[in-house]
Automatic annotation (TrEMBL):
The keyword Zinc-finger does not apply. Residues 195-205 have a biased composition (Basic residues). Keywords: Two-component regulatory system. The lineage of its organism: Eukaryota, Viridiplantae, Streptophyta, Embryophyta, Tracheophyta. GO terms for biological process: cytokinin-activated signaling pathway; phosphorelay signal transduction system. SMART domains: REC. This is Response regulatory domain-containing protein. The keyword Metal-binding does not apply.
């Protein structure tokens, strides 16, 4: 169904079960950032405009835009500043490029700061080595995607928000129970789990992963290692 831009049109097109999904999109490449925001628009989201640019802030359509909106930032550094300046709960999901060439933190650094506050999706400019993807998943990324991103990859990213909220409500995700020190990446148990998994990666560095199930199995094993360190 074609997205007409109305609330009903977007809901029918994407099938959002969540009333509010606000995305923070991050990429230092202007063309990639524009492409990402436009693709998200095609999935039922809308680029969030400053209030001053909206002629009628009390218009119901304005409220809808703020409920399923995309805020675009040109670097992970800017994105982190935006999250810190906004009230808690202003964003529900972060999509950030993993590697950057600019000054400041990259996508991995942004993940380290936000992994206990928001679900984070990392994006590679090209297919990344297994070790790089492992770094992202062990760091708490919900997904590690590769450009170009189309509607097929982005249409159902709201599921990560649903999963995050469910885990927060039930306490089933260790990230919702970690201390402030662990939020900043200084948790001893988490670091020990990463060191153990890195050692395993060294012994399998030459292994070729030709199928998704094999790669997924390794990620599951890594997650089990991390969870096993929670009680240490």
């Amino acid at each position: 169904m074609e997205n007409t831009g109305s609330a009903s049109g977007a809901t029918a097109d994407v099938g959002f079960p969540e009333a509010v999904v606000r995305i923070l999109a991050v990429d230092e490449d202007p063309l990639s950032l524009i492409t990402l925001t436009r693709t998200l628009q095609g999935c039922g989201y809308h680029v969030l405009l400053p209030v001053a640019a909206i002629s009628r802030p009390d218009d119901p359509s304005h409220m809808y835009l703020s409920m399923r909106a995309v805020t675009a930032k040109a670097s992970p550094e800017e994105a982190l500043r935006e999250v810190r300046q906004k009230p808690e709960g202003s964003f529900d999901l972060v999509i950030t490029v993993a590697r950057t060439e600019g000054i400041g933190i990259d996508g991995f650094g942004l993940l380290e700061h936000l992994r206990n506050r928001l679900p984070v999706i990392l994006v590679g400019n090209e297919p990344e080595p297994v070790e790089t993807m492992m770094r992202g998943y062990l760091g708490g990324a919900f997904e590690f995607l590769t450009k170009p991103l189309g509607e097929k990859e982005l249409r159902y990213i709201w599921k990560h928000v649903s999963r995050w909220r469910l885990n927060a409500a039930t306490g089933s995700d260790p990230r919702h129970r970690r201390s402030a020190g662990a939020v900043n990446g200084s948790g001893e148990g988490s670091s020990r789990g990463v060191r153990q998994q890195k050692q395993r990666c060294r012994t399998t560095r030459k292994t070729q992963f030709n199928s998704l199930p094999n790669l997924h199995a390794l990620f599951v094993e890594a997650a089990e290692v991390l969870q096993g360190t929670e009680g240490m």
